[in-house]
Amino acid sequence: MVIGIDGMDPRLLKDYADRGMMPHFAALMARGWFEPLETTIPPQSPVAWSAFITGMDPGGYGIFDFIHRDPKTYLPVFSAARVSEPQRALRIGNWILPLSAGRTELLRKGKAFWQILDQHGVPNTIMRVPANFPPAQCKGRTLSGMGTPDLAGTYGTFSFFTDSDAFDSVEVSGGTVQPVAVKDGRVSAELAGPPNTMKKGHPVMTCPFTVDVDPERDAVRVLIQGETFLLSPGEWSDWVRVHFDVMGPLKRIDGICRFNLRSVRPAFQLYVTPINIDPAHPALPISTPPSFARALQRRIGDFYTQGMPEDTKAFEYGVFGLEDFVSQTNNVLEERWRMLDATLDDFRDGFLFFYVSTIDQSSHMLWREDVQRGTANDADSPAGNRLEHLYANMDSLLGVVEKRIPPNTTLIVMSDHGFAPFDREFNLDTWLYRQGYLALERPGELGRHPLLKNVFWRRTRAYGLGLNGLYLNLLGREGKGIVRPGAEADSLLAEISRKLLALRDPATGEPIVTRVDRAADVYHGDEMANAPDLIVGYNRGYRCSDASALGTLTQGWIETHSGQWSGDHCMDHTLVPGVLLANRPITAPDPSLRDLPVTILALYGIESPAGMHGRVLIRP
Question: By Cβ atoms counted within 10 A, which residue in 198, 200, 490, 537 is the most buried?
Fold first, then answer.
């Protein structure tokens, strides 16, 4: 069995274990093995988990960042999955009737190790491993994780209904703020669902609901599609089923969501989770076999199917306070515990993988208060001791697993990367512009154009897109490329690398970049054509800005990062290793993520295929 704990940091783990807070982990360290686990270049979650799945580096499986770019248009595209509309359709008035099926495509290349286990008759269950949507076809039972969209096709878009004007000037990414009015004690509103691809213009389908407000009792009654429930401030509803009619009663799409009443007075505030794919009636493929998600829902009840369910965006933009974020992430953890219980009930032989995301998402949001300022032991601090609590929760999970797995089971606990502070944000594209590598059509409009729309490509030699990638504007590859391949490109890459490594933060004197890798030096495989030319590895405390990642140049090239998202790992991979623990000796030094699938196959006596580059860490 492998337990995958996203974002578990080796330094925090060792510190908490040494202080007696994690007895099960401490015991496993004492009788088994504990090592930092080398992560990928770059240490981004979809990149790292793809290495765990395939045993290859990004050059083999083709995922280099959260986002890639189309070299002909310079526009960003999602790296892990693509949903395509039907290629053939019949148009009748405002209706578009599909004559062929649409397609949901996993863009990760390479064979998943559990597909190889399949070929050798090894039973396997893979619970919510990231970078596996739609799930790779196999005989085993799998449930997709990170990368699984909500019903609207996004990575998670919440809805927030309020009559307060406090959010009028706030641009919320990852959510929609919808103004409402309380009239005669009632609020009328609509949940936005997926676009109706069978209608001309693809209008967004909606689900109306009403809220009766009782200010004297400080409570509301919600009525939606025939269902009624009461809420008090801070209270969560159960999962609520909603449906969207595509063609009236002939075709509909089902989803689930939860409501949370933020307040009744002085302002009405109601939060609704992203509308998740209904596991009982999935509108998109989320499991193998397709019946597995439905069977799991019948056993444990409804659950988040969205890939990363912890709502960091609601917290970041002030829709949630700390207590609300803790409450929502506790909901996610409770579901994971029920899922673990059902999974362990069925585990008799073969292979089992189980994944938990909450350490990662909470570390992103609470690092500054909980770790960096040294307030982890201060119950009165704004963040209290939340990360300690979550690590202790993982210790309890390990204790339960150790009691319930079959005797003589080889147990591995791992994470894809660790964590570091995120205090200063670097705009790579602005720096390239200031250094003369990137030109603008209208320099006076600096900061006004996302997606590199103001770039003068015929005078641009390099640009950044994504969190760690730098590309040359290469002749013959980019749509308006000018840099000649060969000696000119090599010289330019060497020059930019030297300048990045020499950069110092004018506020602190610290190096901003501690590592720059050429893709040609660190990647291997058939997908190299899509790789960035350079992978920029930032120092602890530094990261590429969100603006630069999406191609927006800002006035300053280095700025203080003051957002709630205060911890990160998209930096120099040597500075944020993951963790590796096992109840058997690890026989190779300096283990890496790519070693794990090779090791898993070896434990069943299966030779790894030629494309896997890892080593065997645990001898059969």
Answer: 537
Q: Is 264 helix (H, G, I), strand (E, B) or coil?
A: coil
pLDDT tens column, 240-286: 999 999 876 668 899 999 999 999 999 999 999 999 999 999 999 99
CB 359 within 8 A of CB 390: yes
The neighbouring-strand residues paired with 103 are 84
Which residues is 35 bridged to in the sheet?
580
Domains and CATH numbers, the chain: 2-64+99-148+284-419+576-603 (3.40.720.10), 158-277 (no CATH), 423-573 (no CATH)
- Count CB atoms within 10 A of the CB of residue 85: 13
Query: If DSSP states are collapsed to H, E and C, what string results for 107-175?
Result: CCCCCCHHHHHHHCCCCEEEECCCCCCCCCCCCCEEECCCCCCCCCCCCCCEEEEECCCCCCCCCCCCE
Kindly write down the DSSP assignment for every residue of 532-594, as one continuous string.
Answer: -SEEEEEPTEEEE-HHHHTT---S-SEEE--SS--EE--S-GGGS-EEEEESS---SSS-BTT
Alpha carbons 314 and 262: distance in angstroms, whole number? 12
Q: Which residues are CB-neighbours of 436 under 8 A, at least 6 positions away?
A: none
The answer to whether the beta carbons of residues 544 and 426 sit under 8 Å apart is yes
386-404 and 358-367 helices, crossing angle to 10°: 170
CA distances from 294 to 278, 300, 336 (A): 9, 10, 16
Write the CA distances from 189 to 163, 174, 230, 331, integer angstroms.
12, 19, 17, 25
Task: Tell me the C-alpha distance between 464 and 474, whole Å.
Answer: 13
Listed in sequence order, the residues at least 6 apart from 460 whose beta carbon sits closer than 8 Å to its beta carbon are 437, 438, 439, 473, 482
Residues near 578 by beta carbon (within 8 Å), at least 6 away in sequence:
8, 10, 36, 37, 38, 39, 48, 414, 415, 416, 417, 418, 593
- Taking the C-alpha atoms of residue 495 and residue 501, their distance in angstroms, rounded to an integer, is 10
Averaged pLDDT, 593-605: 98
Sheet holding 534-538, edge to edge: 462-464, 469-472, 534-538, 513-518
Amino acid at 160: F
b or e along 474-508 (b: 16 or more beta carbons within 10 Å of the residue's beta carbon)? beebbeebebeeeeebeebbeebbeebeebebeee
| Per-residue pLDDT tens digits for 173-212 | 889 999 999 999 999 999 999 998 878 888 999 999 999 9
Burial tier of 94 (Cβ tally within 10 Å: 0-12, 13-18, 19+): exposed
Alpha helices for 231-321 (secondary structure H):
290-300, 312-316
Strand pairing category for 219-224 and 204-214: antiparallel
Q: Which residue has the tokens 């691809």?
A: 197
Cβ atoms within 10 Å of 91's Cβ, excluding its own: 9
* Residues comprising the chain, all counted: 620
Taking 3-state DSSP, the helix, strand and coil percentages for the chain, each rounded to the nearest 5, stand at: 25, 25, 45
